Amino acid sequence: MNLHWTPADWELDFSFIRASGPGGQNVNKVSSAVHLRFDIQRSTLPAVIKERLLALSDQRVTNEGVIVIKAQETRSQEQNRADAVARLIAMVQSVAHTPKARRATKPTYGSKMRRLEGKAQRSDIKAGRGRVSE
Fold first, then answer.
1. Which pTM was predicted?
2. Are 75 and 26 in contact (CB under 8 A)?
3. Closest C-alpha among 1, 88, 90, 79 to residue 46
4. Where are the alpha helices (DSSP H) in 1-134?
5. Residue range of the domain that includes 48
6. Domain annotation covers residue 89
7. Which of 20, 36, 93, 98 is deepest in the core (most CB within 10 A)?
8. Is 56:90 a contact under the CB 8 Å cutoff?
9. Is residue 87 left, alpha or beta, with left meaning phi > 0 and alpha meaning psi from -120 to 50?
């Protein structure tokens, strides 16, 4: 499934907090880190993708079915906001891709024979390593 999805503004809930870690006065005074909350059930995503998102074993998905993404890489609130949205879109894209179904195949007769010949050769080599009897 090829999904080109961008979330609507009403689907995203941003809250701005102070970033953790080093940074001195800027970190202590400015709320540049972003918490993005995205409710999967209320979203406009197709039902199949909603189910896959809820089934993810990802710590960013809460028990209530809300994706929480924290972005605090840059000192700019707008850049952190864009980063959080980009990570949400990447997360949705990752579950939108369905892997190709694997079909079991049987080895050919020739490949079976080559494998057995190789095993027989190896067996002869190992058998020749024993003690020499007189």
1. 0.66
2. yes
3. 1
4. 25-29, 47-55, 77-96, 109-127
5. 9-96
6. yes
7. 36
8. no
9. alpha
Residue 104 lies in a domain: no
Predicted local distance difference test score (pLDDT) of residue 75: 81
Number of domains in the chain: 1
| Backbone φ, ψ for residue 64 (5° rounding) | -80, -5
Tell me the CATH number at 78. 3.30.160.20
Q: Note the pLDDT of residue 119.
A: 97
- H/E element holding 39? strand 33-39
Residue 71 parent element (H or E): strand 66-71
User: Is residue 27 assigned to a domain?
Assistant: yes
> Which pLDDT score is estimated for 1?
57
Token pair belonging to 39? 């409710």
- How much helix, strand and coil, in percent to the nearest 5, is found in the chain? 40, 15, 45
Token couple for 123: 């067996």
51 CB-near residues (< 8 Å, 6+ apart):
none
Evaluate whether residue 69 is within a structural domain: yes
1 neighbors 96 (Cβ within 8 angstroms) = yes
C-alpha 99/C-alpha 76 separation (Å) is 37
Model pLDDT, residue 25: 67
